[in-house]
Write the structure tokens for this entry.
Amino acid sequence: MPNKTILIAAGGTGGHLYPALAVAEEIRRERPDINIIFIGTRDRIEAKEVPRAGFPFMPIDIHAQRKSVSSLLTFPWKFASALIDCMRLIAKERPSAMLGAGAYLSVPVGIAAWAFRVPTALLEINSIPGSANTLLSRMADKLFLAYPEAAVKFPKRISRTATVSGTPVRAGLGRQIISREEARQSFGLDASRTTVLVFGGSLGARAINEAMRECAGTLAERGYNVLWQTGRSANVVELQNQFANIPNVRVIDYIYDMERAYRAADLVVCRAGASSLAELVHLGKPAILIPYPFAAADHQEHNARSFERDGTAVVLRDSQLKTMLAQTIFALLGEPERLIAMSKAMKQRDNPNAAKLVAEWLIAATR
């Protein structure tokens, strides 16, 4: 009888981690007897968020290959060491299935799973597949996609297995019973004010933070709330001091209860990472999307433009923020009927069964 263990390789960014956590939580609900082990790196978001969610976590020492001389010299050794660690873990745990969520750290896990003939699924949450999933697609057994157009980017042997599941979101998202006014008050904001939520991911986005530094005060002066997550890489204390005497601008380095933040918001300003997009869709939040300009294969730009074509979002590039972010926010907030239409269009993109579809395949592999 096979061991009822599932490995999940996910992390590096919240965009890769949170959909995988949604799948893990769905497995835990349906089959609490199955052991789920996450593999990630010790210095990124997964090292804190996976244990916080109650799952075992095994760190491996690996980083994405960079163009520096030192990286080129050390990468092969680090990769080989990570692969050996993954082989040892699989030899010990004998998992029944493995899920790769697209991060570079999933590559040694996927190769080790292939070597031990562990059934493997890949979750591709972007419209342009990342290099990790592209590589592992030659070894994997099943493909789950957020965007149907991504299928043609994979080899036919795996694209034939593809299920367009959408992006998994954590089951708790959307279940809070809290009014918009209560959500605003919980962040120390005026309950009656229209609210803009701004964030650039768990680490933050310098271009977004610099633009908000210029316009947050003006937004407050014109009667709006600003709920601003700067990210952990920003100097949050400096920003908090700058806006300490400006009512209705709330500056936080990291918001753990994102649903409450979304509930407070009438408009969201954020990057176009797949996980953030899935949350916007699930909660029906209109957005200004700012694609990360250095994303692999420019996938955030492709993600964002797909939403713009649907009328669910407005897209701005980093280079446009200083001159156009404030006026774009004011223009959208000045058209409440447009915001309502954008919200409805967002909800039409939602697939609430995304996590369940992926979880059911992994569970079936344990039988």
